[in-house]
């Protein structure tokens, strides 16, 4: 358990996680719930560093049914998904709180958006540096290395630090 870089708190049988417990992975993602024979088994949830959560029923480490909720409360649905589709491009915060005046742009679901470090991209769960191919969360903690497909997707679709607009400030 701890040998893999994670931290576990809970019951154990023959040195394996068993019963109710909490396991935190090295990435900061935490599992809370039922465990059996060292695996997620029964009801439990994954809590992600970005604030999202995945509640599921697990069988021998594999989720059999579950629901993902984003940090802002939006619940993901694999069927009849009406958020940010071809017909409605509003952010969830705009759906909940209404649209801003026409002259005010909302660039991300977070308002105001996070300031992107120079040379990086905002990939929705943190920042991506294309030179190192490292993704960090918004608190600058390591999440993962991007593979070629993820790199291409981020570079093609995500907001860049150099895209940020600078407001004109008239001389006083």
Structure, briefly:
By secondary structure, the chain is mainly beta.
Q: Could you characterize the architecture of this molecule?
A:
The radius of gyration is 20 Å and the shape is globular. It has helices spanning 92-97, 148-157, and strands spanning 7-13, 16-24, 30-36, 39-47, 53-59, 62-69, 121-122, 127-129, 134-136, 142-145, 159-160. 9% of the residues lie in helices and 35% in strands. It has 172 residues and is mainly β. The strands form 2 sheets. It has a 6-stranded antiparallel beta sheet with strand order 1-2-3-4-5-6, with no helix packed on it. Strands 10-9-8-7-11 form a 5-stranded antiparallel beta sheet, with helices on one face. The mean pLDDT is 83. It contains 2 helices and 11 strands. A hairpin with a 2-residue loop joins β5 and β6 (62-69).
Lay out the secondary structure.
Layout: E1 7-13, E2 16-24, E3 30-36, E4 39-47, E5 53-59, E6 62-69, H1 92-97, E7 121-122, E8 127-129, E9 134-136, E10 142-145, H2 148-157, E11 159-160
Antiparallel strand pairs: 1-2, 2-3, 3-4, 4-5, 5-6, 7-8, 7-11, 8-9, 9-10
User: In one word, what is the shape?
Assistant: globular
User: How large is the radius of gyration?
Assistant: 20 Å
How many helical stretches?
A: 2
Termini separation comes to 61 Å
Class derived from helix and strand content: mainly beta
Q: Please state the average pLDDT score.
A: 83
* Total number of beta strands: 11
Largest sheet: number of strands, sense, barrel closure:
6 strands, antiparallel
Order of helices and strands: EEEEEEHEEEEHE
Major sheet: arrangement of strands: 1-2-3-4-5-6
Helix content: under 10%
* Uncertain stretches of 5 or more adjacent residues: none
- Beta fraction of the residues? 35-45%
């Amino acid at each position: 358990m701890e040998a893999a870089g994670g931290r576990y708190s809970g019951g154990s049988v023959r040195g394996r996680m068993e019963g109710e417990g909490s396991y935190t992975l090295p990435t900061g993602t935490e599992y809370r719930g039922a465990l059996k024979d060292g695996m997620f088994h029964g009801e439990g949830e994954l809590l992600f560093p970005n604030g999202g959560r995945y509640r599921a029923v697990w069988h021998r480490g594999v989720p059999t049914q579950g629901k993902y909720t984003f940090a802002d409360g939006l619940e993901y649905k694999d069927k009849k998904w009406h958020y940010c589709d071809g017909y409605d491009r509003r952010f969830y915060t705009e759906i909940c709180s209404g649209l801003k005046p026409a002259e005010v742009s909302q660039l991300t679901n977070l308002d105001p958006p996070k300031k992107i470090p120079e040379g990086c991209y905002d990939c929705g769960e943190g920042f991506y540096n294309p030179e190192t191919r490292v993704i960090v969360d918004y608190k600058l903690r390591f999440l993962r290395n991007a593979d070629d497909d993820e790199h291409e997707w981020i570079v093609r679709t995500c907001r860049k630090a150099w895209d940020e607009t600078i407001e004109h400030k008239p001389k006083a």
